[in-house]
């Protein structure tokens, strides 16, 4: 008889009203347990579904030597999103990278925003504005810029 066990790692973030527990489940990169997070954060369901999809990729998924996306990259992606996304921000496209990292992208309203997450969880941001402005820096250095731009994308 098999019994369910607690996730091997959990991360809790958010306000008291939207406490989230994000952990790992067998066969999935991420499992969510919470009372209201999907209603509070409409983009969350899409993000989790896509992370679970790319988390199932096997080594060589590109027909060559690509690594499977890492759980560290998935968790670092979620941490970043919880820091910078607004309630009405659009969910990013989530693209697996050959080295086991992830790339999260938003394109629209004259903005191109890319958040690259390395297999170990290091994060880098690139933002290009239609006006010609560009930001290319480590995530921690540009959190406020990223929040501002993702807020603008949510106000369509």
What is this structure, in a nutshell?
The chain is 28% helix and 29% strand. It is α+β, with helices and mostly antiparallel strands. It is globular.
Specify the number of helices.
Answer: 4
The percent of residues in helical segments reads: 25-40%
Which sheet architecture does the biggest sheet show?
5 strands, antiparallel
Quote the distance from N terminus to C terminus: 52 Å
User: What is the H/E string?
Assistant: EEEHHHEEEEEH
Number of strands: 8
Strand content range: 25-35%
Report Rg.
16 Å
Pick out the low-confidence regions: 1-36
Which class best fits the helix and strand makeup?
A: alpha+beta
Mean pLDDT: 78
* Tally of separate domains: 1
Strand order in the largest sheet: 4-5-6-7-8
Shape, per Cα inertia axes: globular
Give the helix/strand layout:
Layout lengths: L9 E4 L6 E6 L2 E6 L3 H4 L2 H13 L15 H14 L8 E4 L5 E7 L2 E7 L5 E7 L4 E5 L4 H12 L2
């Amino acid at each position: 008889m098999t019994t369910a066990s607690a996730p091997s790692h959990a991360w809790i973030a958010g306000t008291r009203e939207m406490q989230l527990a994000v952990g790992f489940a067998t066969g999935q990169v991420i499992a969510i347990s919470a009372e209201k997070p999907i209603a509070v954060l409409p983009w969350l369901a899409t993000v989790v579904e896509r992370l679970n999809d790319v988390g199932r990729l096997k080594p060589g998924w590109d027909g060559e030597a690509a690594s499977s996306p890492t759980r560290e990259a998935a968790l670092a992606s979620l941490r970043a999103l919880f820091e910078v996304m607004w309630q009405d921000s659009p969910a990013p496209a989530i693209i697996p990278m050959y080295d086991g990292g992830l790339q999260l992208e938003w394109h629209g309203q004259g903005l191109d925003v890319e958040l690259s997450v390395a297999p170990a969880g290091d994060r880098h941001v690139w933002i290009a504005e239609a006006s010609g402005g560009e930001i290319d820096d480590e995530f921690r250095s540009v959190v406020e810029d990223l929040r501002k731009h993702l807020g603008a994308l949510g106000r369509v």
